[in-house]
Amino acid sequence: HIKHTIPGAKDSKVIVSGGSYGGFLTTVLKMNHPEVFFGAIPYAPPLRSIGANYQNPRRYDWFNWVYWDLSAAAATKMRDAFTLLAKRFQNLGEVEDIAKDLNLCTVSKTAADLQLVMGVIATNAQLIPLLSYSSPDANPYGATPEKMVNISLSAKNPIDIVNATLTLRNPPNLVPCISWDSDDSSEASLQKAPFNYLLCKYFPLSSNEILDGNIYPPTSVQTESDPMTCETLYKIVPPTQAEVEAKWHISTADLIQAPRIIFAYAENDPTTGVGIHPFPPSPDRNASRWMITSQAAHGEESIASFSGDKPSVVHARRVQLETIKEWLGLY
């Protein structure tokens, strides 16, 4: 449509881009329609944790590394605080005190309830680095892993560290209590049931298990794409990682052979843990490549620029722009 309606665009080459799930779609579009899309920049595409048979713990492993890399002392205090909380969760006699200490909207009365609470905490925790944008429009509360580190280092009580995980993204003046048992999504325009159906059918991302050795206790944050959930609730058998790779031609071998794709990941983004691995270096500037932006959040280079952008993000945008110019033969 654009080529036929914009003067001078008829013979222009098309570069496609998108972030997160849009990064997955960007990759699929470029790989399956090379005659249409000359180049592509998928930002933070989660390409390696798809399918109920392929639970990939690397998202929370990466999250873990973010904090250990920033401050081993803070990460140790965070780990100890959540180890203590996990022990408290084993005693149902403490549920009233737990609800009070965590400012929960309702009391979690069963072991299953407490597992949901831990899932809410872990989800909020990984969103702090994932969404740590410099732009106040994208990160209105200014939550960053650096703030979490500073709070942890100065905390006198372990519960203060746990609460910071929740309040950095849910300020008490705006969120009077923490909801853990709601069926509503945190996004006003998103309903969980239809979204989970779509996950099961088309994109069963399985990346929310936390294993031993993490700052946070072993936790199953969500099970929307587990076989039992998909089959029981929606009568759907989700595709496997191998099936998705074969159907859309996104195996590692496929991607390495395809020209003109920049897979853009970020240091603070746990999604990097479930993305593709770096490619072998190539002297061919049209070869597809993998890049990572230091201290950046989830697809941060792809959002609108502003005066306070991180220098690393500004640099990454410049690298991507210059690469596109080379693709187009401007140099």
TrEMBL record:
<keyword id="KW-0325">Glycoprotein</keyword>
<keyword id="KW-0645">Protease</keyword>
<dbReference type="InterPro" id="IPR008758">
    <property type="entry name" value="Peptidase_S28"/>
</dbReference>
<dbReference type="GO" id="GO:0070008">
    <property type="term" value="F:serine-type exopeptidase activity"/>
</dbReference>
<protein>
    <submittedName>
        <fullName>Uncharacterized protein</fullName>
    </submittedName>
</protein>
<dbReference type="Pfam" id="PF05577">
    <property type="entry name" value="Peptidase_S28"/>
</dbReference>
<dbReference type="GO" id="GO:0008239">
    <property type="term" value="F:dipeptidyl-peptidase activity"/>
</dbReference>
<keyword id="KW-0732">Signal</keyword>
<dbReference type="GO" id="GO:0006508">
    <property type="term" value="P:proteolysis"/>
</dbReference>
<dbReference type="InterPro" id="IPR042269">
    <property type="entry name" value="Ser_carbopepase_S28_SKS"/>
</dbReference>
<keyword id="KW-0378">Hydrolase</keyword>
<comment type="similarity">
    <text>Belongs to the peptidase S28 family.</text>
</comment>
<dbReference type="InterPro" id="IPR029058">
    <property type="entry name" value="AB_hydrolase_fold"/>
</dbReference>
